[in-house]
Amino acid sequence: MKKIIICLILILPAAFSFAQSWKKLHYNAVLVDTHNDFPSLSIDEHFSFDQDLYGKANSDLARAKKGGLDVQLFSIWCDGDKQNPYAWANREIDSVYEWVSRNPSTMMMVYSPEDLQKAVNEKKFAAMLGMEGGHMIENKLDNLDKLYARGVRYMTLTWNNSPSWATSALDETTKKDSLPHKGLTDFGKQIVKHMNDLGMIVDISHVGEQTFWDAINTSTKTVIASHSCVYNLCPHRRNLKDDQIKAIGKNGGVIQLNFYSGFVDSTYERKQAAFLKLHKSELDSMVKTGAQPDLAVQVLYKQYKKETDGFRPPLSLLIDHIDYIVKLIGADHVGLGSDFDGCESTPLGLDGVEDYPLITKALKQRGYSNEDIVKILGGNFIRVFQEVQKH
């Protein structure tokens, strides 16, 4: 017994020191999340980011502060069936502006690296905008200009659907030879070049492989994958293969890791299919009443949380994806793009924006240096933002 007590006396200070070390590191770093779907959820569920939404959503302003989140790129999104997607994009942007206008002492719209630095200095939550899906510009460069003027600082070239000028990962995988073309058309390449000229980041998450290579070869500026993971660890069409990861590294870009269980864990889709089959009638009923299918699945997961928690992957699998990219192309090319409030399942422990410190703790436990952790948490994205904004 005496030996055990002596061991505890030696271990406890070390454990306390470790906890203090990673917590201090986490809250001193600038934490950037490049993909959160709260704007579309807020309209569907009549939520506001400055409400207390614990148990209702992954995100809210108070919990973001608790989790040490400094910069959020809110995803401006609608599916390919939405009528007047450009107008919908502006409606979502209006929502973000409303949250900021109601909270001038704690929130700030960010349009430039200088704004971002100002927000950090003043300890204000930096709200930024990324647009998920090129279909929302409705084939008009003028709309792209207007969205940039309103604050959109990256555009994901496609969502699951394909605009007329680019093909998505979903369409390239499922439609294959029936597609009228693969990759970027001449107009698609013109859009990428125009984004370069504006200072808007080209985002290659969601795009098909041909679109990926066309975008990489067309862009003269650094790109990102705003919310993607590693294909070799989880062979999903939305994830990046080794040659794509290496190309992003060569470009100087950053892969922002997606927390969605289906992109992290190769066994998740099979387990999810069984769950959805069991609750098919409830899901169909929600969709018939007008709910977007993706959001209907999220509602179903909340209703059966105990059941769905049973097949969430461990946090360690997400860290494995970070490890894989770092070993392949280095720590300068990894970041975080959670997909919070846009997916129905995330690794155990990552229930919302308040849980980001667990990632810092896990990285520290794996032996990452403080310098590399700071890069992964946000420094790498800030570098890309600065590079793309240079004219």
Descriptors:
single chain, 391 residues, alpha/beta, TIM Barrel, nine-stranded parallel sheet, 18 helices, 51% helix, 12% strand
Spans of 5+ residues with little confidence (pLDDT < 50)?
4-12
Tally of contiguous helical segments: 18
Helix content: 40-55%
The average pLDDT is: 94
- What is the terminal separation in angstroms? 69 Å
**CATH topological fold name:** TIM Barrel
What's the CATH H-level superfamily name?
Answer: Metal-dependent hydrolases
Secondary structure: number of strands: 9
Shape: globular
Class by alpha and beta content = alpha/beta
Helix and strand sequence: HEHHEHEHEHEHHEHEHEHHHHHHEHH
Describe it:
The protein is of the alpha/beta class. It has one domain: Metal-dependent hydrolases (TIM Barrel). 51% of the residues lie in helices and 12% in strands. The chain contains 18 helices and 9 strands. Helix 6 packs parallel to helix 8 and helix 13 crosses helix 14. It starts with a helix and ends with a helix. The relative contact order is 0.14. About 2% of the residues have low confidence.
